[in-house]
Amino acid sequence: MTRHDSQTRRTDIDRQWWKEAVVYQIYPRSFNDSDGDGVGDLQGITEKADYLADLGVDVVWLCPVYESPNADNGYDISDYRAIMNEFGTMADWEALLDALHERDIRLIMDLVVNHTSKQHEWFQQSRRREDGYDDYYHWVDGTPSEPPNNWKSIFGGPAWTYDDERGQWYLHLFDPEQPDLNWRNPEVRDAVTEAVTWWLEKGIDGFRLDAIDHLSKSDAYPDGDPDSAIVGIEHFSHGPRLPEYLDELSAAFEGYDTMIVGEMGGADIEQVDDYTGEDGVDMIFQFDHMGVSVGPNGRWDPTQFGEWELTDLKEVISQQQDEIDWPALFFGNHDQPRLVSHFGDDETYRTESATLIATFLLTLRGTPYIYQGEEIGMTNTEFDSLEAIDDPMTVGIVEDLIADGVVDSYEEVRDLVDYQSRDHARTPMQWDDTENAGFTADDPWFDVNDNYDEINVESALADTDSIWHHYETLIELRHSEDVLVYGDYDLLLPDHDQFYAYTRTLENETTLVVLNWSGECSTFDCPSVPTADANVVVSNYDDTPSDPTGHAFRPYEAVVYQL
C-alpha cells in the first residue's frame, strides 16, 4: 500500500472539532472482557485505550452502559444515572473517561429517550397511577383482547401490550419491555433534560440520540396503512411536534462544547436539515444508502435482498453529499450487518474490498464513524437456527414471517438472517488467535465468529499491508488534509457500473478518489478531469501508477490522488 506526503493544514477555515473528528463506535458487551465473566466491560475498554489512540480516532461513541435488565442489550434503560453491574461501576466509567481524555479522545454516550425499560421507576410509578407519573407513557383504554389500533412494532408483533396492573394498553414501538415515553408531557421532557445535564456535568463530550424520529406521535392513535412495511409508521415517525421537542432538547446542550448526532432511520434526505443546526442536533444518521440492497418491502423482505447496483449507491450518496449540510458517514454499526459482507466481498477480496470501503468512508464530506472490528475486516457469521440468535428484532420478525404464512420455517429465511441480522455486528471483537479470540477467558456471552484465527487485531498489527494499517493511514491523511474534510464533493462517471470516482475540492486544492468497486479489472478514463500531473497519495495496492487515466484498475483497487 502506498502513502505519499500530505499538505499542511489551512488557517483560514471556520473549524468545528466534530467535523474534523473520526468516531469509533464501541459495543461494550462485545469489545473486551477484563474480568473473565464472558461479557465485555468498561475496564476492558480502558485496557484498549492505547489501541484506540494508535489507530488515530478522535471520539469514542459508547453504546449504552446504563442500568438495564438487558431485554435489548442495554437499549432498555432502567436508570439513566447508574451503570449496569455487568459493565462495572461508575468509578470504572470515570476511569475510562479519564483514560480517553488523557489521550485526546472525546467520549459521547448513547442515550435512549424514545422509550425506557419497563423496570424503570417511571414506568412502575405510571402503571400504579402515582401522582405526576400517570401519563409518562402512552396509555390507552380497551379490552384486553383487542389492541387500540393496528400499529406494528419495529421488532415485530403488535406495538401495544395490555398491562393487567393498570388495566390499559401501553405503546412500545420496539420490544414490549421498552414502553415509549409520552413526550407530550412537559414533565417527561424536563426529566430527560435533567438526565442529559447530569451526564454533561460529568464531563462527556456529547450524545448519540437513539430513535429520535419517533418522539412525536400523532395526537390520536388512528389505524395505519396495512400495506406499509411497518404498519402505522406514518403516525409514529416524524410527528407534528418533533421539531419543537428537538429544539427544546437542544437547549440543554447550550454552554457545553458538544457533538450531538441523532439516529433517524425513517428520515428522508430532504428532512435531515430540518432537524440540524442551531435549533437541533449537529448531524443525523440517515439510512437511505443502507437500503440499496433490500427489496421494495424493506430490509426484511425475504423475496428480494442482497443484490445492489453501484449506480444506485452513487445516486443516494451523492444526494446526501449535495443536500445534507453535514452528513454522518457510516456503512455499519451495531444495528447493521458487517460492512465488508454487506458492501464488499468477504471471501475472495476481503482485504481489497474492506480497504476500498475504508477509503470511501474516510474521503467523503462529513464525519466518519468506524464500528468496532471494521478496521480488521470482521465479517458476518452464520446462524444455524432461530435459537442461535440473540437479537429481539431478528427473532420477532422471523416469528412474524412464519405466523403470517410468508414462510413455513426458519430454514426458508436463513439466508436473509445470515445477510441482515443485527447479531453479526455483536459477535465479540477478535483480538488474537487464542481461544475465544482473546476477548474473554470464559465462555463468551455470544459466539465468536469462527474465522478469528485468520481475522484478528494481533495479525493485522503485524502486517504493514493490513486493513488496520490502511485505516490508520487514511485517518492520518484526513487529519492533515483539509480538502478531505471541508472540500466540495463532485461525482464523476455517474453511470459507470464499476467505478465510483469523485473529486474533493477546496479552493485550488483538488483530490481525486477512484474506486473500482468490483471483482473485475477495468480501465479508468474520465476526460473531464486532467490527470497527467496526478500523484498517488494512498492506494490499497502496490505499484499504482501516478496517472489514473489508462490504468487498468485491479479488483477493488482504491486510490486517492492529488491533482
Features:
563 residues, alpha/beta, TIM Barrel, Immunoglobulin-like, 2 domains, eight-stranded parallel beta sheet, six-stranded antiparallel beta sheet, 17 helices, 21 strands, disordered N terminus, GH13_cat_dom, hydrolase, GH, glycosidase
Task: Describe what you observe in this structure.
26% of the residues lie in helices and 16% in strands. The model is unreliable at 1-6 (pLDDT under 50). It has 2 domains: 18-116 and 186-475, TIM Barrel; 487-562, Golgi alpha-mannosidase II (Immunoglobulin-like). The strands form 5 sheets. It has an 8-stranded parallel β-sheet with strand order 12-11-10-6-3-2-14-13. It contains 17 helices and 21 strands. It has helices at residues 17-20, 42-47, 49-55, 90-102, 121-127, 186-201, 233-236, 242-250, 269-272, 310-323, 339-343, 350-361, 392-403, 414-420, 457-462, 467-480, 482-486, and strands at 2-3, 23-26, 59-62, 66-67, 79-83, 106-112, 139-140, 160-163, 168-171, 206-210, 259-263, 283-285, 328-329, 367-371, 488-492, 499-506, 509-516, 522-523, 535-539, 552-553, 558-562. The longest helix has 16 residues, at 186-201. α12 runs parallel beside α16. By secondary structure, it is of the alpha/beta class. InterPro entries: GH, GH13_cat_dom, Glyco_hydro_b, O16G_dom_2. GO terms for molecular function: alpha-amylase activity. This is Oligo-1,6-glucosidase. Belongs to the glycosyl hydrolase 13 family. Residues 25-426 form the Glycosyl hydrolase family 13 catalytic domain.
At CATH level 3, the topology of the largest domain is TIM Barrel
Principal-axes geometry comes out as globular
Query: Regarding CATH, which class of the largest domain?
Result: Alpha Beta
How many individual β-strands? 21
Beta-strand share of residues: 15-25%
Mean pLDDT reading: 94
- Main sheet: which strands, in order across? 12-11-10-6-3-2-14-13
**Helix segment tally:** 17
The CATH homologous superfamily of the largest domain is named Glycosidases
Distance between the termini: 19 Å
Structure class: alpha/beta
In total, the number of domains comes to 2
Question: What summary fits the major beta sheet?
Answer: 8 strands, parallel
